[in-house]
Specification:
single chain; 233 residues; Rossmann fold; 6-stranded parallel beta sheet; 6 strands; 36% helix; binds NADP nicotinamide-adenine-dinucleotide phosphate
């Protein structure tokens, strides 16, 4: 197969712990596709808070001849220097909530707006975005983490709704939200106990890519964990 016609796998958030590992794994193991990573520093960059950057990145992909086989969104926000996940209602902070929704829900929705049209009209393709099990409303037994939980629940609804729309024009395309499992990255670092209950990103990437390879069109619109098990909404 000539380089010009090889399918293209895109990783958005390719500088993060899981995103970088997924991009590396695809580059090392996918002989049939090329891999392109987007970060806030890539050329062109993707900053989820700037729709124009998402639109321009999508245009840069659509200008090429390659067919898109995979779009993997690995961005996300849980904490920063100013915010830690809330333990109680009294800790709710408007700026923290806005940032959580902007990065975890609105940004990925705008990625779907501009990138789902790039998927081929026929033939299998996959759009997967990293969500989190704590975004499950039914599975919420511990409480807390209001902004993160609610923004991931919103993301799940956006994925489900997009999958329904996508099916009308691209019946073989698959659109899913995936929980990667606890992974040793900057996002989880303050919350894992001595690294004992977190997987390193390499094996996580391997099992995520294997999962994406097993998905069929009937999985579209699902919320799945890394093993492929359905997580309740
Ligand atoms: N790690 C876990 O245990 C775990 C568990 C469940 C779910 N997840 C989910 O998995 C995903 C990846 O998490 P991770 O553990 O790999 O975290 P990470 O290492 O902190 O990576 C997060 C990525 O999001 C990017 N990002 C943040 N704000 C952005 C913005 N405005 N525009 C573009 N990119 C932005 C970061 O870019 P910069 O590098 O430029 O900051 C970084 O690449 C997240 O959605 C997270 O919720 C992780």
């Amino acid at each position: 197969m000539s380089t010009a016609t090889r399918p293209l796998a895109l990783v958005i958030g390719a500088g993060g712990g899981i995103g970088r590992a997924v991009a590396d794994h695809l580059r090392s193991n996918c002989n049939d596709c090329d891999v392109r990573g987007f970060t806030r520093e890539s050329e062109p960059p993707i900053d989820l808070t700037l729709e124009t950057s998402i639109e321009e990145a999508a245009r840069s992909v659509s200008n090429g001849a390659a067919e898109i086989c995979l779009i993997f969104v690995a961005t996300g926000f849980l904490h920063d220097d100013a915010f830690v996940p809330e333990r109680s209602l009294g800790q709710l902070n408007r700026e923290h909530m806005l940032k959580s929704f902007e990065i975890n829900a609105i940004g990925p929705a705008l990625v779907m707006k501009h990138f789902l049209p790039l998927l081929p009209r026929s033939g299998r393709s996959v759009f997967a975005v990293l969500s989190a099990r704590v975004g499950s409303i039914e599975d919420n037994r511990l409480g807390g983490w209001y902004s993160y939980r609610a923004s991931k629940a919103a993301l799940n609804q956006l994925v489900r709704t997009s999958a329904i729309e996508l099916k009308r024009t691209k019946p073989e395309a698959i659109c899913v939200a995936v929980h990667p499992g606890t992974t040793d990255t900057p996002l989880s670092a303050p919350f894992v106990k001595s690294g004992l209950d977190a997987q390193s990103p390499g094996p996580v990437a391997e099992r995520l890519v294997a999962l994406l390879g097993r998905l069929s069109k009937s999985d579209s619109g699902s919320f799945l964990d890394y093993s492929g098990a359905t997580i309740p909404w």
